[in-house]
Amino acid sequence: MMDPDLLQRWRNAPRLNDFSAFFERTAAGQGGAPDLGEPRLDLGLLDFDLESAVFADTHKRLWGPFDFHYFASIPYRLEEECRMGPALVRTALETWARHARPASIYTLGTGTGCLARTVALLGAGRIEALCCSPTAANREAFLANRASDHAHFHLGPFFELDADRYATDPDLRRFAGGFDILFEDTTFQMYDRDRVRQIEFVYPRIRAGGLLIQVQKLAHLDADEYQARERQKDDLFKSRYFSPVLISDKKEEVLGTMTNMQVDKDATVGALKSFFRYSVATWNSGNFYTIISSNSRVAIIDFLSLLLKPAIPPAFSYADLPAVWIDTVTDPIAPALAWRRPNTMDGLAADQRLAS
User: Fold this and answer.
1) Which residues, other chains included, contact 279 with Cβ-Cβ below 8 Å and sequence gap of 6+?
2) Other residues' Cβ atoms within 10 Å of the Cβ of residue 338
3) How many domains does the chain have?
4) Quick one: CA dihedral 272, 273, 276, 279, positive or negative?
5) Domain assignment of residue 135, given as a range
6) Which Gene3D superfamilies match (predicted)?
7) How far apart are CA 58 and CA 349, in angstroms?
8) Residue 212: beta bridge partners?
9) Is residue 347 part of a domain?
10) Residue 269 lies in a domain
11) Which residue, 65, 91, 104, 141, is CA-closest to 301?
């Protein structure tokens, strides 16, 4: 039984109240869109990798209005999505082959569900993908370009999806056995600061040997350093896509409140350590991080072996990656971690793909 006080706190959270109009307007294409240009993938940062190019091409065809805003807002988040995507698909297909069942992926709080729709389409029936958002316009974008019958959308916040809901909702029953990969994307920080209770809620939904992947914006012990990274994001990246007025408007409407619910690395590690034996940071862009956690050493090693090196200019990254944040003394993971080599397209194909 969920703590009713906690449930009420999440219902009263900014994401469902103060931020609601902003997300609805942006997801409906009625505001918040970049007004100076659309975000474009820099395939060169991905070493013209064939698998990343295929994923990116599929992914871009499925964008909804909110995706244009999102990928123009976080430096090189689009390259990170197209670096992560092939590893998600390959891991899921290996799960399908090993267990003779469709793999299950849950992208929690991922707007239009573009990532879920992309992996479901590329999985061709071998991957069942679920996403959730409390924004009705995101659901409309999802249904307008669903792409696969194996992609599913829940209209509502993440905390509505408890065990009873999976067991009784016909649309969700296929996920009652849990998820092989649960991907949380900058969502927890819009509800409150208690990462332990948030992870505690989703942890039972992760299958044994599964992965929790998170994109988190972290606070910093040095407030000046945090602000310096924010200025870099705004002045050197977002300014390519948004006019100064739009950047200022978002700060005023959303980012100030959201900052109050961010936690730092120590708090993040402390929360994850309550549930996982291993946790590795695999990407960093300013104050943003990708963090992969599991109780299976092999699962993390195998997943990282499918990831290219981070696709981001060095000036935007402040961490030596991969960075092991949680490890064991008896069976350490750090010595076994390595990125995959790119499957680089030939020069002509790469030039043509980049030009497109």
Assistant:
1) 269, 272, 273, 291, 292, 293, 324, 325, 326
2) 12
3) 1
4) positive
5) 4-336
6) Vaccinia Virus protein VP39
7) 17
8) 182, 293
9) no
10) yes
11) 91
Q: Is 94 exposed, middle or buried (0-12, 13-18, 19+ CB in 10 A)?
A: middle
Q: How many CA atoms lie within 13 A of 10 on its CB side?
A: 19
Q: Is residue 343 part of a domain?
A: no
Q: How many CB atoms lie within 10 A of CB 173?
A: 12
- pLDDT at residue 348, rounded to an integer: 47
Nearest to 63 by CA among 95, 36, 92, 38: 38
pLDDT per position as a tens digit, 290-308: 999 999 999 999 999 999 9
Q: Assess if residue 166 is contained within a domain.
A: yes
Tens digit of pLDDT for each residue in 69-81? 999 999 999 999 9
Residue carrying structure tokens 């971690």: 337
Q: pTM of this prediction?
A: 0.96
For the domain that residue 46 is a member of, what is the CATH number? 3.40.50.150
Length of the chain: 356
Alpha helix positions (H), the chain: 4-11, 20-27, 50-60, 65-71, 77-99, 114-123, 136-144, 163-168, 195-202, 223-236, 244-250, 256-259, 265-273, 297-304, 347-355
Look at the block and give the residue holding tokens 């980012």.
Answer: 255
Res 352: pLDDT: 55
Cα–Cα distance, 323 to 164 (Å, whole number): 37
Residue with tokens 């009420």: 8
Determine the Cα–Cα distance for residues 280 and 48; give it in Å rounded to an integer: 25
